[in-house]
Design a protein that fits this description.
Layout (H helix, E strand, L loop, with lengths): L3 E8 L11 H16 L8 E5 L2 H4 L5 H4 L11 E4 L3 H13 L5 E9 L5 H4 L16 H14 L5 H14 L17 E3 L2 E2 L8 E10 H7 L4 E10 L13 H10 L8 E3 L5 H11 L6 E2 L14 H14 L5 E8 L5 E8 L6
Parallel strand pairs: 2-3, 2-4, 9-10, 9-11
Antiparallel strand pairs: 1-7, 1-8, 4-7, 5-6, 8-12, 11-12
Helix pairs in contact: 4-11, 6-10, 7-10
Amino acid sequence: MRDVAIVAFAQSAHRRRTDELSEVDLLMPVLHEVLGATGLKANEIGFTCSGSADYLAGRAFSFTMALDGVGAHPPISESHVEMDGAWALYEAWVKIQTGEADTALVYSYGKSSPGRVRDVLTRQLDPYYLAPLWPDSVALAALQAQALIDAGDTDEGALAEIGARNRTAAVDNPYAQLTGDVPAGDHLVHPLRTGDCPPIGDGAAAVILAAGDAARALCERPAWIRGIDHRIEAHSLGVRDLTDSPSARLAAERAGAFDRPVDTAELHAPFTSQEVVLRKALGLGDEVRVNPSGGSLAANPIMAAGLIRLGEAAARIHRGESDRALAHATSGPCLQQNLVAVLEGESDHA
């Protein structure tokens, strides 16, 4: 296995609407920033991979237009996943492992503002039994929250505290969309209140991966990917225990998260109830600082929020604020798909 690290991370300021910006306009400053952080030029990147969703853009192969943000010349080795950018990072990591590239640019973006996200996300559901009923993403998350309450794992007050803690942490995050004292609000779908749900907004993110000595040359303290894995639950919600996440636990185990304690965890938990599930599945105690960036409750650009969790965890290692961090990304209803990566600073490199 080759040693691969995240050596740079950049993201946009996340906003409720960016009507004046195209996807390319949203991406270009982020791509320029992440390349500028390493001093690399486009022709020095071995592989480029992106993550986005055509359903958000409302047109097929929308990612090809976003490639204008990367540049038409020189020709590049490029790929795309119809997923959160965290899965694009996984593909890039595999590409580097094969030896076909030493560096990779990974980016993702999402403009959620043009449409109704709660309806768009129903297209992820089982097409025979669930999708025809049009249960929206908040209603499904509320089912999971109620299952947790019924099991005695949490209550509405505890969920409100999770929302408050995340958004208070986001006060120090200049890119966050929603920060500070946010009211719990009224019930959106019982038992979830507006404060238990993520903001809808637009944003983009990018990271650069590099292997071995190339990583050390590009970054003073690389965030080494010690392990990374992703797993999926059954598609049918009716056969799952919504109070647990076996796929997140298995991904964490395969990534080596349980080998030694982590000091930081960036969890992709768009709903407060999902943080309860993930903390239990990943064995995260109070000694672990969870979502110091504010997490997805502070900014949740769809298709970029998972990559941002990896980038935020890596950035804390770059700054020397963390030595061993866990980063998590999810996709699908009720934590259906989960990716876990373990990142470590150079001082822990063996």
